[in-house]
Input
Amino acid sequence: MRAAMITALTGPDAVEVRERPEPVPGPDQVLVDVEHAGVTFPDVLQTRGRYQRRPDLPFTPGWEVSGVVRADAAGFRAGDRVAALPTTGGLAETVAVDGSMVFPLPDGVPSDRAAALPLNYLTAHFALVRRARLEAGERVLVHGAAGGLGAAACQLAAASGARVVAVVSTPEKAEVARAAGAHDVVPVDGFRDEVRRLTGGRGVDVVVDPVGGDRFPDSLRSLAREGRLLVLGFTGGEIPTVKVSRLLLTNTTVMGVASAELWADEPDLPGRQWRDLVPLIRSGAIAPPIGRVLPLQDAAAAIRELDERRAAGRVLVRVR
Ligand SMILES: NC(=O)c1ccc[n+]([C@@H]2O[C@H](COP(=O)([O-])OP(=O)(O)OC[C@H]3O[C@@H](n4cnc5c(N)ncnc54)[C@H](OP(=O)(O)O)[C@@H]3O)[C@@H](O)[C@H]2O)c1
Output
């Protein structure tokens, strides 16, 4: 089969498409013939060895896919259309995935959108529902709102009855955030003043932060009393630090969110989360915004879109 492979830890340019043997599924694994694969920021980090998991070189990245089940396994039947979360190996014609990370697709969900669902929507669900315990009527600020995780958080928060303020860096990304359900969209520069204005000085209840970096202090200052800031990632590069005295007087909570680590401890959780999401997928309340779709041959260019901060909506690789 053909697969994209990280051949050196020097960035997306070292991603090559090569022939390699098909994976052999383990006892509880499902073999999926991939139609589309989602490109995510962890793929970018892996091209430089900056992600917490560092497989031996060369290896195939790729967290999430859509496709068709090859043979009966783990409760799935040959021919079932699925979305799946292999966490590695997805940028390939075929991938073996643990049965607990394979999800049946409702009828009518196109393969491109399906590939953009698993990682970011399950993570947004974990962040907003289980960690932040978001309630209808609360206000949520989302950084990187035209990115994969950001757009998923906008849609899920809006579908949960929250009022969503999106933070983005370009007008094109503002359009994507609006289409993903953001009620208000503000630019990165000066977002704190805009949040204050939009909330009548009160602030937001929850900040979804996949970016980190130098905007972190203003994110904390954008929170209302008893606000929760969800730490999801650091696309901005810098890992911020916080003086805990800043949390005390406003009863602020800063909480870490690491979905893959939790799924490893609770393998039945992703399936339960997926069942929560299915009605929203069916109704169209969650439908990932799609940006560029490139052929597998151009996997390096697809990863570069995220690395160079250009992606507006999901970048996907079309495999077949
Ligand atoms: N904790 C978890 O469980 C979990 C799960 C999945 C992903 N993540 C993390 O979440 C983060 C986002 O992932 P993603 O796949 O959504 O990425 P993405 O689609 O590339 O979106 C990231 C967003 O970050 C913003 N950004 C700010 N500075 C940037 C820079 N220097 N380079 C690139 N982007 C920059 C961009 O928005 P603007 O240009 O509008 O600022 C961009 O849209 C990553 O750190 C990833 O590792 C965490």
Observations:
- The chain has two domains: 2-117+288-318, 120-260.
